[in-house]
């Protein structure tokens, strides 16, 4: 579909969102900055709970298998539910790469298992952190019109047997999203830490000094007396 033809179809904000999603689907986001909402924060900052609250979709919160790649969620309100999940390949260490993985989602509750399986696939390939992207598209009567991307949590330390390169690689990925001027940054900060010294807010301030693109969200309020 030609770009001019797509632009001619834009009539409402929702159509604009669908247009941006279509442009991203055909790979244009690799060449120009497209508008997007990115959710980011430290590991165990409460990102999964926030994502669930924003989207109505449950995300895996297993400490043993955290986010290893960007996860894009494309939601649309509709009369009946339907959905798909796929793994979009931007890099791969697998010699037998099958390209894009697709799976039908029969219900909303299937999402956590689908994410976990694709994440485990990356881990099995030796990709502790990957630029590949899990893309979930769903429509249903209880879903909002919303597109957002969940990024791996910033890592401060890793175990003795874990790859030390995870720490800088995650930071580089988050910085890459932050520096895009058309990206709205949702910076997740737990209430039980010193917010002035959190890495995610410091990084957001460097990328967005005026704070025009940054929304800080405080989580885990129940941990504060």
What does the model show?
- The chain has 225 residues and is of the alpha/beta class.
- The chain folds into two domains: 1-32; 35-223, Rossmann fold, CATH 3.40.50.
- The protein has helices at residues 3-8, 13-25, 47-55, 111-124, 166-178, 199-207; strands at 36-41, 71-77, 82-88, 101-105, 133-140, 146-150, 183-190, 214-219.
- It has an eight-stranded mixed β-sheet, with helices on both faces.
- Strand 7, helix 6 (199-207) and strand 8 form a beta-alpha-beta unit.
- The longest helix has 14 residues, at 111-124.
- It is globular.
- The model is unreliable at 93-98 (pLDDT under 50).
- GO terms for molecular function: GTP binding; GTPase activity; microtubule binding.
- It holds the Pfam family Dynamin_N.
């Amino acid at each position: 579909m030609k770009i001019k033809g797509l632009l001619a179809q834009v009539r409402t904000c929702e159509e604009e969102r669908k247009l941006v999603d279509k442009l991203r689907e055909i790979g244009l986001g690799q060449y120009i900055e497209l508008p997007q909402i990115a959710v980011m924060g430290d590991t165990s900052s409460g990102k999964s709970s926030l994502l669930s609250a924003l989207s109505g979709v449950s995300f895996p919160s297993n400490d043993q298998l955290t986010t290893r790649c960007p996860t894009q969620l494309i939601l649309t309100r509709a009369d009946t539910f339907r959905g798909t999940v796929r793994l979009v390949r931007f890099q791969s260490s697998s010699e037998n790469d099958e390209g894009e993985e697709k799976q039908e989602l029969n219900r909303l509750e299937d999402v956590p298992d689908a994410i976990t399986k694709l994440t485990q696939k990356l881990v099995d390939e030796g990709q502790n952190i990957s630029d590949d992207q899990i893309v979930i598209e769903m429509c249903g009567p209880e879903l909002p019109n919303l597109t957002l991307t969940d990024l791996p949590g910033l890592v401060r330390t890793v175990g003795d047997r874990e790859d030390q390169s995870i720490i800088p690689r995650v930071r580089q990925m988050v910085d890459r999203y932050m520096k895009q001027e058309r990206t709205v940054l949702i910076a997740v900060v737990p209430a039980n830490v010193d917010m002035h010294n959190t890495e995610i807010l410091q990084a957001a301030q460097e990328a967005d000094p005026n704070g025009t693109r940054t929304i800080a969200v405080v989580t885990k309020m129940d941990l504060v007396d």
